[in-house]
Amino acid sequence: MLRNYFKIAWRNLLKHPTTTSIHLIGLTLGLTTCLLILLFVQNEWGYDRHLKQGDRIYRVNLIRTTGAEVEKSGITPYPLAPAMRTDFADWPKVTRIHADRDLSVLVSPQKILKEDNVVFAEPDFIDLFDVEMVEGNGKTVLAEPNKVILTQKTAQKYFGSASALGKTLRLSNDLKVQVAGVMRDMPSQTNFPVTMLVSFLSMKSYFSFGIDQWGLRSGGSVFAVLPEGKSPEQYAARLRQAEKKYFSSRDGETSTLVLQPLHDIHFNPDYEGTILTAAISPTYLYVFGAVGLFVLLIACVNFINMSTARAMTRAKEVGVRKVIGATQRQLVWQFLSEALWLTGISALLSLLLTNALLPVVNDFLQKQITSEWLRTSGILATLALFTALLAGLYPAFFLARFRPIRALKTATEAGGLRSGRVWLRQGLVVFQFSISLILAVGVLIIYRQMNYFRQKDLGFKRDAIVTVAIPDSKKMAVLGQSLRQIPGVEHLSFALGAPTSPNNFGTDMRPDPANPAKKINISLKLADADYLKTYGLKLVAGRFLEHRDTVSISGSIPEEKRRYAFVVNENTVKALGYAKPEQILGRRIRVGINDIEAEVVGVVKDFHTSSLHKPIEPMVLMNLPEFYYSVGLNLRTSNYSTTMAAIETAWKELYPESLFDAKFLDDSLQELYEDEQRQFSLLRVFAGIALVICCLGLWGLATFTIERRTKEIGVRKVLGASVTGIVALISKDFLKLVLLALVIATPIAWYAMESWLKEFSYRIDVEWWVFALVGAVSCLIAFATVSFQSIKAALMNPVTSLRSE
């Protein structure tokens, strides 16, 4: 019996190739989209789930509150880990790390590479993160200074098939380390995709600042394993004691230590994930999961609409089957088997399409999403069954309920179809287009926000500026002389980094040196006297840093006799309670790094030191040449290639054993919004797929509607109706549905995009014309879809039309 159901179903599908093709294309696109999104979501939820002690591992985070300003961070002072070991001796393990990116690695004079995921770690890192050693003892290696463990992939990249043990590497032109171990590659689903583990004791040679300073936070984090059966809440009182002991909490500022579960790190953007892996909002996963399901629902709606619309042509078939003894249950199985055939074929096509597209998706998302045959097939089988039941059950029961007597009369009377079920098809079309319009509005608003990122005045010049990393600041003077002789270089400045860059020091400022307990969180920029003209900063009061300021802090001068100078931004002026920039000039303040105290000599107009996700914060600019890690070059806008070649030549003469790493500032700024750019691209694809499926369904319904009204169209033409009038008659009913969908989609889309835009401190407004434009374009697309068939029918010879049945 079952075999007979599928046999008849197959014949019916072949009998209507156009309808079958529309169903197959829609269901295949829907299943593929849904499957790819589910694989992505499943991959994200699996972060660090492989760790044996994962449920007991916590990161010690710091929340600093100053008035209304709240800073949450997983980056903590380096002395915090030893303090935790002392004060929380019952914790089985406490370890600290320092994560770094974009380190140049000298393998040999002929082989200089850049390494992205480098972690300086203490021995307990091996146990906490289940590091599997292939060669060497991991804990022993990390207990010694200047030792390094490479992953298998990194060892292969550096040394090929030769043994890596005993080889020497030089990191960032400063630190020489010996390879003493090789570990298995870290899983792709981890917040720590480490390619190189360096012993934490090496930090003393690598880092210029002393790592015993409580005022210094720069890439360091603390992780701990809690005793079995213990929860973070049980340590709340002891954490409050630690806060009082190690952090001052006066004058409106408080510091709070919190324990963040390891599994929460990847899904809590408030703490920004880790330096190596950004956090992702769970809302982002829920939204894309919902989008995948909605795209699949749109495809199911097409099936339901087309199946119920064509019910009139199958009414006599149902009547005959019932007259000769078919039960309603048998008819349900008969029609459901058609849905199973279609979803089965679509599932196979989807599986092939998913495997073909997955490498492209991985490359785009910078992920390593895997598609194991059994797992993917299981997910797809579940989706296919869900789709078949969702799309097939209603049409199957609907068709099987036809009464034989009415079904064997005219198709028009069968089941009261013309009046009784039209509302359902119209409602489903409205649902389809509502989803598509919401996605389209999202695409347009994200595009406008991305365009806002590109065009917003950041408070400094960003065109025609190149930043080049410097391996050794001791050769700056010679490098500067060589670069200034290049005709294409207009200005240049040595600094820790560009105005907006990850190269900032987060520290505190003590506005009153006599009251060290009063602190304000600041961003510290280290730059030379040419920073102002190179980047086009605007001076609003006093003077900028000068070359004599650098001389006054020369290494040849004893520390107690050095004279520093500070330049602050307008936000700092406001934070200290001054009404005018001129009022702060001459005031002495102290910063947390090395407890440097100096006089404020100038004020610059506010500029952005980080992405537009964050507001501008108080900032201090000062001279500190040993921390000049890059040179910014303002180029003349002609013959870039020649100028860049000359810059590289001058650079390599001084640093022949280092990697030349140059970036245009505008490109670096765009990297800050890579996540939003990916969201925009993905949403654009999903919106396109949804619209294509909607239009396929609309085209199918229009075709069927015209087939049923062929004689009516012929009569109207005989009575003098124009082609335009007939097209308008047929199209207006569909356009009304699209306009109704726009009315429904507008408040939903507005709320969703307002919620998304709240993530940015600087953002666009959601304006009315966005919805009007999306609605107009959607109506135009719908009209074009329907009018193609309408014009074809309107141009048909009336004689031929009136002969049709």
Structure explained in plain terms:
The chain has 805 residues and is α+β, with helices and mostly antiparallel strands. The chain is built from 27 helices and 24 strands. Strands 1, 2, 3, 4, 5, 6, 7, 8, 9, 10, 11, 12 and 13 form a 13-stranded mixed β-sheet that branches. Strand 20 and strand 21 form a beta hairpin. Helix 2 crosses helix 12 and helix 16 runs antiparallel to helix 23. The chain is elongated.
Write a brief caption for the model:
The chain has 805 residues and is an alpha+beta fold. α2 packs across α13, α16 crosses α26 (768-794) and α17 (476-484) packs antiparallel against α21.
Features:
elongated, 27 helices, 24 strands, 13-stranded mixed β-sheet, single chain
From the alpha carbons, calculate the radius of gyration and give it in angstroms: 34 Å
pLDDT averaged over residues: 83
Q: Quick one: how many beta strands? A: 24
* Shape descriptor: elongated
